[in-house]
Structure formats: structure tokens, C-alpha cells
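Structure ticket #2291
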Amino acid sequence: MCGKFAAGHLTQRQMADLMNYFLYGTLLPDGSVPSANPGYQVNPTDLVNMAMSQEDGFLLTSAKWQMTPQGSSRKLINSKIENAEFWARYWQSGRCVIPAIGYYEWSEVDGRKEPHFITIRRNNPLLFFAGFYGRGSDGKYECSIITRKPAEQIAHLHSRMPVIMAPEQIQNWLTYTMSQEQAQNEMGTGWEGRFEYHRVAPIKSDSEGPELIEPYDPPQASFDF
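Resolution: structure written out below.
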């Protein structure tokens, strides 16, 4: 599962310039909608950056991170890659990519739920979640992040993980030349041994900034002797 992630403070234009290295065709920022300002604590219903294909190339726009799939009343932030039938419409017309720098997951430490920041070793400042998108009842874009069973390296942290795409997969995913079966078998599976994760400080609702992803060692309790 992915219920909170970090995207840093790159502008939409900077993100587009970075992603253009992986695409055969120009990725243009969308100046017709409010820009996302994601930062280091992105929560459901926030505006996030989202790349998708269009007739003359690709578009980097903004979307609400929570969607109600067509024919459903459920509001979802994640979509299981295994549940192809439920998301059938979006496999055919509704694929997107959501840039980030990592995500948070909570695991039990000493009987308490403690947050961890999870990312991967890479050369690019960004990593890319696979997602689905549609339009809400207000006509605005909304999206979900695709998840799958976790890599063995991080399975002790949570039973699901977001699908993190390899850069060379982005073009075929967005242009629908990657089949559903290929995506289910390959996307998000090539990072074993390259995950980096560490415990972070408790995250407050109004917290923001790069300190959220810094390693945290809780102070040791004092004892009276």
C-alpha cells in the first residue's frame, strides 16, 4: 500500500525536463490547470503531478490523488495490479506515471507503529509510480497509484508496495504498447537489492520539508538507578 509519499520541491517544468530523457516525444507541462505543490508529505486528495500520453506527445498535468473508478462508488488511492478486471477500462485508456522521490510505510517497532521512508538507489532525482487516471464528477483529473506484492527486501515493512517503474518502461506503459500481462509480470519487479529505507521521525499533519525523510534514532529512555 502507499498512503503517503514524498515528491520534493521540483517545479513541474523541472520534472518535465527530467522525464523527457525517457520519452520519444515531448512531455509538456500543462499550464491550463492549477500546478501541484507536493513537497515531502503528499496525502490522499492532494494535487500531484501526473504524466500521460496525448495525441501529439505527452502531458505533465496535475490530478487529485484519489479517484472513483467508473462504475464504482469507492474512492481509491491505490489500485492492485492483480485486479485487472476491476480496472479493465483504465488498462485500455487511463495509464499514467506519478513522479516522486520515495514513500512512507508504517511497521511495528517495539509494539508501536513507526514510519519508515523507502526509496531506491538511482541516478535520476526522481522515481516513477505507475498509476491510473480518470476524470471526476467535476471534470478534473484524479488518479491512483498501482501497487503489487512487495519485493523480498522490504516485505517486512508492509504487504504491498507501489509499482516503481524502470525508466525504460515509461514510454511503453504510457503509449499502451506494453501489454497487461507484461506489465503485471515485469513492472516494479527489478529493484531487489536496490531499496534504501530507514526509520523517520513521527510525521505530524502540518510537517513539511526534507527533514521528514532524514533517518531518525529515537532518544533512549532514561532510567533511575
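Closing remark: The chain is about 10% helix and 30% strand.
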